[in-house]
Write a structure and sequence with these properties.
This protein is of the alpha+beta class. It has a single domain, classed as 4-Layer Sandwich (Phosphatase 2c, domain 1), CATH 3.60.40.10. Helices cover 32% and strands 27% of the residues. The strands form two sheets. Strands 2, 3, 4, 5, 6 and 9 form a six-stranded antiparallel beta sheet that branches. Helix 1 packs antiparallel against helix 2. The longest helix is centred in the first third of the chain and has 22 residues. It is globular and about 50 Å long. The protein starts with a strand and ends with a strand.
Length: 245
């Protein structure tokens, strides 16, 4: 039986939490479950609004869609959120330039469909295969790595690491990536904002997620570890066990 736990925390350096999360183990529309992490950006309170609106619009769209299929529904949800954020930003100088990342998934038995825009991430973690990052960051630094101009090690602390190349609300069209993943017994799914992934090495993620304890205990350990390493950004975590007995 699938189990999940979600948590979002302001971290140690920020004055406002611009992350938004949603986690439902129960069906949402045609989806058997739904998990979303969004990390907002923009001026004061604009990022908070962008991430919150995106989660709300995705939830509403998915709740009311019928027979469209998972990918098409995710795409429509993100396109609707993109249009709304663009519209809001045009009406208010204070909201100009706001946007948000979004990573989401739904799991049906051993099949998981993932969508992402930006640099919030989804990992599959197990003792058997270690830490696997499923999503690919839409960032300048990741692009440099993919093109061979930068090593993965150098990318981790690069000064331009936070420059995002795709986001919800920034351009007239939003371009999500989709991934299909087959899950196996022992796999756990981690969705997170970069406030976690920038603060912890993959090895640390694996040690905590594969440790003994409940999903709640592990999620809180992840947040505590990110804060312990500096807590430079808001920290959001959704931890899912697709096969908990």
């Amino acid at each position: 039986m699938l189990k999940a736990f979600s948590i979002t925390e302001i971290g140690k350096k920020r004055q406002l939490n611009e992350d938004s999360v949603y986690a439902s183990q129960e069906a949402v529309g045609d989806f058997p479950n739904l998990f979303i992490v969004a990390d907002g950006m923009g001026g004061h309170k604009a990022g908070d609004r962008a991430s919150r609106e995106t989660v709300e619009i995705m939830l509403d769209t998915i709740s009311h869609a019928s027979g469209m299929g998972i990918r098409a529904t995710f795409r429509e949800a993100l396109e609707t959120a993109n249009q709304k954020i663009r519209q809001d930003a045009r009406r208010s100088i204070e909201l100009e330039g706001m946007g948000t990342t979004a990573v989401a998934c739904t799991i049906d038995g051993d099949r998981m469909t993932v969508v992402n825009v930006g640099d919030s991430r989804l990992y599959v973690i197990s003792e058997r295969e270690g830490v696997r990052q499923i999503t690919v960051d839409h960032s300048l630094v990741e692009q440099m790595v993919q093109e061979g101009f930068l090593s993965r090690e150098a990318a981790r602390n690069h000064p331009k690491k936070n420059i995002i190349t795709r986001a919800v609300g920034v351009l007239d069209e939003v371009e999500p990536d989709f991934f299909e993943v087959t899950l196996r017994e022992g796999d756990r799914v981690l969705l997170c904002s970069d406030g976690l992934s920038n603060m912890l090495e993959d090895e640390e993620l694996g040690i905590i997620v594969n440790s003994v304890g409940s999903l709640e205990e592990k999620a809180k350990m992840l947040v505590d570890a990110a804060n312990g390493n500096g807590g430079k950004d808001n920290i959001s975590v959704i931890l899912v066990d697709p096969f908990e007995k």
